[in-house]
Amino acid sequence: MDKEKKTKTVGEGVSFERIRRITGYLVGTVDRFNNAKKSEVQDRVKHTGAK
User: Fold this and answer.
1) The whole model's pTM is what?
2) Nearest-angstrom CA–CA distance, 45 and 49
């Protein structure tokens, strides 16, 4: 009988939520921010990781 080797990817099936530090607060979303704080988020420089 031929056994099939199963491989599992690390983190497979695990949900991930991005948490950011904005204006001193740890947040997942900016839904509850007022217009001034939302504007600050948009004005920030976005950095990407080197690949």
Assistant:
1) 0.44
2) 13
